[in-house]
Design goal:
Layout lengths: L3 H7 L3 H4 L4 H9 L1 H10 L6 H8 L8 H41 L4 H42 L13 H14 L7 H26 L1
């Protein structure tokens, strides 16, 4: 269901059509309902299938633990961005009040027209920021859902370092399996070097535990 904010983006298009050639203005008016629908349903951030299939792919994050902790990182990044967005929205609302006060005090017609343009820009900016914030909330909730699906009690969800020796080893093994005779020296070194180091660390840890 469309809201007033949604409608404000595309239904009040007189400011746009007034600066277009008549033929172009007619085309935009004819597409008004479709443009409103497009604005409402457009994708901003990732879908659940993109989050699971692309971000949390099995090569880079080969087990549940590594996937879970990547979810933590992604969710926190989106939350921090949402907080930043909230500050921008608060400043936007202050700007709107200032512009409205400025418009009320205008005595020159051209000055008033200029301020009105700034008010329209402010409203459009706010509508986009609010839509962006809403989609950030949607993705934050999805990361929470995926974390819950992954958390089966088989790994530590409190200390990120606990899983890393095993997860990183699996990741590097995947990279080594992906090497070919045509892989560059840097690609080989970047895959085999860390894997060899991890194996050495694991062997030293086992020896220390047995002594």
């Amino acid at each position: 269901m469309k809201t007033e904010k949604d409608l404000a983006i595309t239904d009040d298009i007189s400011a746009l059509t007034s600066i277009l050639k008549e033929s172009d203005a007619k085309e935009i008016v004819a597409l008004r309902n479709e443009l409103t629908d497009t604005w409402v349903k457009k994708q901003i951030y990732r879908t659940e299938i993109e989050m699971k299939g692309s971000v949390l792919n099995d090569i880079k994050f080969p087990d549940k633990a590594s996937k879970y902790w990547q979810c933590v990182r992604e969710q926190n990044t989106m939350f921090e961005a949402l907080m930043t967005e909230s500050f921008k929205l608060r400043l936007n609302k202050i700007d709107a009040l200032k512009l409205q006060r400025e418009l009320e005090n205008c005595t020159d017609e051209l000055d008033a027209m200029e301020v009105q343009v700034k008010i329209d820009m402010n409203m459009y900016s706010r509508a986009n920021m609010e839509q962006t914030a809403k989609d950030r909330v949607r993705e934050i909730k999805l990361w929470s859902k995926i974390k819950a699906e992954l958390d089966d009690g088989s790994f530590d969800t409190q200390n990120v370092e606990t899983h890393q020796a095993n997860s990183l080893k699996l990741q590097l093994e995947n990279r080594v399996r992906g090497l070919s005779p045509y892989s560059s020296a840097n690609e080989v070194a970047n895959a085999t070097g860390p894997l060899k180091t991890l194996n050495r660390i694991s062997n030293e840890k086992r020896l220390n535990e047995n002594n």
